[in-house]
Amino acid sequence: MYKFESRIRYSETDSEGKLTMASLINYMQDCSIFHSEDVGLGLEYLKELHLVWVLSAWQIVVERYPMLGERVEIGTQPYDMKGFIGYRNFAVWDEGGSYIARANSIWSLLDTVTGRPVAISDEMVQGYTLGDRLPMEYAPRKIAVPSDGVRREPLSVKRHHLDTNHHVNNQQFIDMAMEHLPEGFRIRQVRAEYKKQAFLDDVLVPRVIDEGNRIFVVLEDEQGAPYVIVEYLGQQPVGAGE
Q1: What is the pLDDT of residue 163?
Q2: Cis bond leading into 226, ω under 30°?
Q3: For the chain, percent helix, then strand, then coil, each to nearest 5?
Q4: How distant, in Å, are the alpha carbons of 47, 60, 117 from that of 113?
């Protein structure tokens, strides 16, 4: 497993001094980028071949949110590659070696010119060195979302939402959806199913289904087609402590 160490920064914490979900996802995303760069399969390699990895699904399970100043270790391990689909685990540990969070992710390799899927090469499989799956309870990739819900105020994609692929970054989607969680909702698990890419000036219309401990936020286009479906599990309301 590829790993790097860090320390929880003030800029990564919320009003309680705890790591935010957005920062947790960014740690995982950065870990996979560092891994790819260090094995020679990074952004420049993909750019030369007109390829891009697009996230299809996230499942992130949080044991606790670390505090400002805590030292953590972040790791990632690709565990399977089939056709154009790649499967990658993530984990975050505290100094004692206990899990802070675990995650599963599913990625699709696309041609940036045609937009079509591309088979993963033997070079990639060998470069990443596949390992074993992390022990965790794996949820399905697809999220069964109710057809009802309340539509909220539309929002437009801005430049700060975009990444090096010039589309909305996967973490930004989850962050947008989190704005529609009730105050005090502490996330224990987040699942996201990405349906299509969003670009600068696209209009996203949130549709929210609140089932108490389970909340769905679907970011749709103006015709009702989803960009992403996000499911949050948590405790509501949240009491003191973790």
Answers
A1: 75
A2: no
A3: 20, 40, 40
A4: 11, 31, 11
pLDDT at res. 28: 96
User: How many CB atoms neighbour CB 112 within 10 A?
Assistant: 15
pLDDT of residue 235: 64
Residue closest to 191 by CA, chosen among 78, 58, 89, 94:
58
Q: In order along the chain (242 residues), what is the average pLDDT of each group of 10 residues?
A: 97 95 94 97 95 94 96 98 97 97 97 94 94 95 91 90 78 88 91 90 93 94 92 64 40
- Please say whether the beta carbons of 219 and 174 come within 8 A: no
Please report how the helices 21-38 and 170-178 are oriented relative to each other, as an axis angle in degrees rounded to 10: 180
Location of structure tokens 């975009």 = 162
The token duo for 25 is 């996802």
- Alpha-carbon span 136 to 89, nearest angstrom: 10
At 96, the amino acid letter reads G
In sequence order, what are the residues at sequence separation of 6 or more whose Cβ sits closer than 8 angstroms to the Cβ of residue 196?
A: 225, 226, 227
What are 231-235's contacts with CB under 8 Å, separation 24+? 231/143, 231/145, 231/190, 231/191, 231/192, 232/177, 232/178, 232/181, 232/185, 232/187, 232/189, 232/190, 233/187, 233/188, 233/189, 233/190, 234/185, 234/186, 234/187, 234/188, 234/189, 235/185, 235/186, 235/188
